[in-house]
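tl;dr need the bound structure. longer version: we got a ligand (fe (iii) ion) that a collaborator sent over and nobodys looked at where it sits. i said id run it. heres the input, straight from their email, havent touched it
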Amino acid sequence: MAAWRRLAPGGGIGGGSTGVTGDRVTGDVATMVVVNIGQLVTGNPRLPAPGLVEDAVLAASGDRLIYAGPAAGLDVATGPETVEVDAHRAAVIPGFVDAHTHVVWLGERSEEYALRAAGASYEEIAEKGGGIRSTVAATAAGTLDELIAATRERARRMLRLGTTTVEVKSGYGQSLGAELRQLRAARALGEEADLPDVVTTYLPLHGLPDGDRAAYLEGVLGEGLPAAASLAGFVDCFCETGAWGVDECERLLVAARAHGLRAKVHADQRSHSGGSALAARVGAISADHLDHATDEDLRALAVAGVTGVLLPGASMVLGGPPPPGRRLLDAGATIALATDCNPGTCWCESMPLMVSLGVATAGLTPAEALLAATAGGAAALGLTDRGRLLPGLRCDALVLETPKWLDVGYHLGADPVSQVIVAGRLVRP
Ligand code: NIG
Ligand code: FE
């Protein structure tokens, strides 16, 4: 177990200087240093994958890193408020960026889990009124406080397992008010101390509405998008046979541009329904799932600069094809790994487990999987200030329990994280 202490007033590590030099920003007094790091995963592509430095130190000033590199090269000033974290030779990696979740929900669907185990399909359960519809009924009826309380528990588990930034979608409201309430709940949690940073996505085309779908879509375009624009950074749609069609999704994604909402697509998850091609066509920031995407689809995503978000937990639970991790990389695309945390297809808060599954099922090397869960997640959210441990970026870092970063994926189903640092602050000491 790593330990931390405050450094003595007026202390210093190295000589102290000012200016910017290579892998450090100097001139600022460090507010936190993480010393005695056996292996540091920086994500720096110029270093051996996954951006590895041995015998390393991190230093932050406020929420930003000012040094991330060999202990021998450290040269920052410290002051009375500098907190020292001793990693005791454990590995340190960037905080996980979980770029796809539906974590705001009420109710539960354990019966469906048992029904699927007995042979019922996800689609059969949905046709009988279960599935997304069942979670909408429970979630839309909840108050803001109930949504926040239920989600806080899940967000705490995420943080304990090393998630320092989480994307949260609406999609279980299906009326304007209930969708916005989900987004407000997510944003309220993002304001709380000791929880992951939150990025929000408006997902109005998820399950099908009870009434006229055309009228519902018009309402989303006319009222939903303007109202959601101040609460979300992205818009998303479930482009799938039995859910929303390519044309309906395209209208949403194109209209959303005028409101500053960038597109995401649940694409080719359960069938080859055209979501990947749509994501490439509209220049989405990410296309997610992709289990049934063809090689042509994956090339189109790569050419269009769309990040492919792999959700191996949902793929495994639903018994579908594995996510196309290797194929996406071969096509030249950027990839992310995420949990998809939701009550139907993958109740899981663990990014370490997604790293394991990315290696075991999606054809990724351990280094590719770790980068997909950190820098890849940041790319899927358009966040250029995090996902790697480099000077100038946010200090979102995890001290592991063990000396080897490989243990994140290797130790299946474990909690490999000892300490969590969010924006230069120790939140899981
Ligand atoms: O990403 N596919 C659509 N949405 C979720 C599942 C939602 C649910 O079943 O409640 C997913 O897998
Ligand atoms: Fe999803």
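gonna send this back to them w/ a short note. Confidence is low (pLDDT under 50) at residues 1-22.
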